């Protein structure tokens, strides 16, 4: 049963008293100011159960007052920070599994924000069970704030095995790179969104466009294809390979044009890479202000995001990462 809340469009923040959840809160405060929305702080804890062969019950009542008091203190401290920032706030304490509580709360929220690690509760388990449950089942977009992230942290591009192929400027890099790795792209101050086969129909694209437009940031559409021939099953001709690359570039160009038509003042560009999607996304996060990915798709890397790609991107992303649930057509 969903708890009655003051604002069903609030930004939800999981609080557990850790530095990671504090970083998540500070990011959420900035976003709440920009969107003129309130914040709902949510703390969760579980009551230990005891199973014994000598008794007929699997639950033994315990005094949870100390645990609840600790959660209350964390929420009270967080609420003070939100109020000081001039943002409306409410706080909720729930007894239950962290993943289940957060997913339930997301039914009445516009955005959920959590830290990637903490002392238990949401953040402590996010890269365990919640890493799958949250992107798969959240009813609103979710932003994961990485460990140690801060708005003013200095980040530089790292080496990457993903190779640029085409970009919005008309550059072609297909025959210019011979090294095994190259320095990754610099997306400082920009919002980067991973684009899959959905192209302009991607919910992640439009969430990213709205975010970039609101922030006054540039938006980069990032596409990834794999041209490596791993066996005799696929031995494309030069013409086939060119058509394959052209199709990927066209998909990005069409999506970028659609965004420009809706947000004419937004600076939009795109880049097509050859490599492994998870690696390309993680390297984009080295410098991006926000990385946006879809949780499901019709193929490409988005189709894998509830499996290997999400498992690979979220633990290693160096910037706030927004996961947008993409509903599949039946």
Q: Report the CATH C-level class of the largest domain.
A: Alpha Beta
Shape descriptor reads elongated
Mean pLDDT: 82
Beta-strand content bin: 15-25%
End-to-end separation in angstroms reads 27 Å
**Can you tell me the number of structural domains?**
2
> What gyration radius follows from the Cα positions, in whole Å?
22 Å
CATH topology of the largest domain: Rossmann fold
Mind explaining what this structure looks like?
This is Universal stress family protein. Pfam families: Usp (PF00582). It comes from Brevibacterium mcbrellneri ATCC 49030. Residues 151-172 are annotated as: Disordered. Belongs to the universal stress protein A family. The protein has 330 residues and is of the alpha/beta class. It has two domains: 11-47 and 66-145, 3-Layer(aba) Sandwich (Rossmann fold); 159-324, Rossmann fold, CATH 3.40.50. Helix content is 34%, strand content 20%. It has nine helices and 13 strands. The chain has helices at residues 19-35, 65-84, 98-105, 121-125, 130-137, 203-215, 238-262, 277-284, 308-316; strands at residues 11-14, 39-45, 89-95, 111-115, 142-145, 159-160, 163-167, 182-183, 190-194, 218-225, 268-274, 290-294, 321-324. It has an eleven-stranded mixed beta sheet with strand order 3-2-1-4-5-13-12-9-10-11-7, with helices on both faces. Helix 1 links the parallel strand 1 and strand 2 (39-45). Helix 3 packs parallel to helix 5 (130-137). It is elongated. Residues 123-128 and 297-307 have low confidence and may be disordered.
